[in-house]
Amino acid sequence: MLLFSACKSDQSEAIKTIETKELSIAEKIANAHGFENWNNVSEVKFTFQVDQDSIKGKGRSWTWQPKTNHIIMATAKNTVKYSRNAMDSTHIAADRAFINDKFWLLVPFQLVWDSSAKISKATKVHAPISKTELHKITISYPNEGGYTPGDAYDIFYDKDYVIREWIFRKGNADEPSLTTTFENYKDFNGIKIATDHKQEGGKWNLNFTDIKITLK
């Protein structure tokens, strides 16, 4: 009886340890954008485009089934269907575009998905565009593997762990390659997505339309 009680006590302590484990900054940012709902997502649809001045981008439209990794890309020129589990050389260009566009769409989740990347400690700084005080972390990728090895991103988030701006630095260079906002957040079945990413001055906007998140 004493042995049973001791085992039961050990199990209770283990459960308490799991329950009280501190989340990482990456996990807190992901959760602030609805990551807890991701396991229920069966299909993601969106159009990625870049508008500059008064010129509307033509865009790429995507249908992605994350559980099977089946993907459809539709552009003004053609439609490509493939599976990331069975790719050949004819799919590389489409897949490179998909990885880029998905990264912009779901970067809060990439922070926890990309286990090979390194994430710095958080600091408080003034954001590059708004000049407001925000928290900053840097995610940097290894020099080998993937389509764009060695890149780094400085991510600026508020007290609620919502991303507000970022800096992309190609090859982890000291100087920014691209700096944009994260704004016009919308909720799609519990997944929170910034639909506009504007450069300072607002004449350049990488944006998402036709977003649809389907739950199983």
Question: Any overview of this molecule?
Answer:
The protein has 216 residues and is of the alpha+beta class. It has one domain: Clam (outer membrane lipoprotein receptor (LolB), chain A), CATH 2.50.20. It is 22% helix and 39% strand. It has helices at 2-19, 25-32, 92-105, 107-113; strands at 41-52, 60-65, 70-74, 79-83, 118-119, 123-126, 133-140, 152-157, 163-169, 178-181, 183-188, 191-198, 204-215. Helix 2 runs antiparallel to helix 4 (107-113). The termini are far apart. The model is unreliable at 1-8 (pLDDT under 50).
Main sheet: strand order: 4-3-2-1-13-12-11
Structural class: alpha+beta
The CATH class, by name, is: Mainly Beta
Following the backbone from N to C, one meets helices and strands in this order, namely HHEEEEHHEEEEEEEEE
- Overall outline: globular
Give a nutshell description of this structure.
The chain has 216 residues and is an alpha+beta fold.
Salient structural properties:
216 residues, alpha+beta, outer membrane lipoprotein receptor (LolB), chain A, 13 strands, 22% helix
List the helices and strands and how they pair.
Layout (H helix, E strand, L loop, with lengths): L1 H18 L5 H8 L8 E12 L7 E6 L4 E5 L4 E5 L8 H14 L1 H7 L4 E2 L3 E4 L6 E8 L11 E6 L5 E7 L8 E4 L1 E6 L2 E8 L5 E12 L1
Helix pairs in contact: 2-4
